[in-house]
Fold this sequence. Notes:
Elements: E1 3-8, H1 11-15, E2 20-25, E3 30-33, H2 34-56, H3 62-80, E4 84-86, E5 96-97, H4 98-101, H5 103-127, H6 132-135, H7 139-147, H8 150-166, H9 174-178, H10 191-206, H11 208-233, H12 246-257, H13 268-303
Antiparallel strand pairs: 1-2, 2-3, 4-5
Helix pairs in contact: 2-5, 3-5, 5-8, 10-13, 11-12, 11-13
Amino acid sequence: MESTPLxxxxxxxxxxxxxxxxxxxxxxxxxxxxxxxxxxxxxxxSLRAYVHDLVEGDFDSWxxxxxxxxxxxxxxxxxxxxxxxEGSPPCKGECVTWNDKHEHFLEVFEAFSVAVFTxxxxxxxxxxxxxxxxASKGPFWGRIAYATSFYPMIDLISILPWYLTLLNIIxxxxxxxxxxxxxxxxxxxxxxxxxxxxxxxSVLAENGSLLIVTLYYSTITWFVCSTxxxxxxxxxxxxxxxxxxxxxxxxxxLVMLTGEYPYAEFTTAGKYIAGxxxxxxxxIFAVPTAVIGSGFVQAIQKSRGLEFTVGAD
Length: 313
C-alpha cells in the first residue's frame, strides 16, 4: 500500500502552529494521523495485555472460573454418559447407556465446550507475548515456544480429537471425549495449588532418604509375605486360584498390607501369617505418615519464620 507523507494542521497542534505529520492511504483515499495510529496500537496492546491477564493471571477472574466450571461439567457429562439406563451388566452390547439415550444433547454440549476451549486456546496463543520471557524470543518463535509447552499442549490435545472426528480423520470413539479429562491438569495453574505442591515437594525432598528406606523394607515385606502365603495357600481349594503362584499372590498380599482382607478362608498357617501381616500393615503406614506429617509441620514453621520444636509449651 503506497503512502504519501504530508504536513497538515489539526486539532491542538494546529492551533499551536505546530506541523502534524499525517499518512495518506492511497488505496482508501483518506488520512490516518500518526497520533491516531499510535493510539490504535496502544489500544491493541492494552487489549492483548488485558486478555493475557484474564487467561494467564491469578486464578481469580470470571474467565478462569468459567473455564474451570466447564471442565468439571465435561468430566461429569463423560461419567454420566456411562450409566446404564436400560438393561443390566454384563451388557455385551445390549445395554443402553445415558450417552446413547441423550446422544444429541451430549453432542451439542461437546460442540459448545470445544468452541469455548478453542477460543481460550487461541486467546492464550495470541496474548502469550505479553510475557517478557516469551516476548524476548520474538512474536513468531515466542508463540511457537509457548504452544509447545506443557499446558498449551494439554489444551490442544483436549480439542484436537473432536476436530479430527469432525473431519472423519479418526473414528468417533469414546476416547475422543475422554481426552478432555486431561484439562483437569490445568487446575495446577492456580497459585494455591502450586503452593501446595511446592510445599509437598520440599517435604518429600527433605525426607526422601527416610521414605526410601521405608519403601525398601515395605517391598521386602511384600515379597516375603507373598511367598509365605503362596506356600500355605496353594493347596487350599478355596484360595488356590488366588495364590497359585508368587506373582498371583502378590496382589492379594498387597491389598492385605493396606489393612484390607479380601479373603478369610485361610489355612491354619495362613491365618498366622495373615495376623502378622495385619500388625506389619500398621507400621508400614505409620512410619511414612509420621515422616511426612512432621515434615509438613517443619515446612510450615519455616515458612512462618518459627523454630520447629516437639513438645514445646
